[in-house]
Amino acid sequence: IYGAAYGYGASRNLWNKITTQTDSTTMDNNLQTICTAAKKAGIIIYSIGFQTSTHGAAMLRDCATAPSFYFNAQGTDISTVFAKIATNIQHLRLTQ
Question: Which long-range CB contacts under 8 A does 81-85 form with residues at least 24 apart?
Answer without folding.
Answer: 81/48, 85/46, 85/48
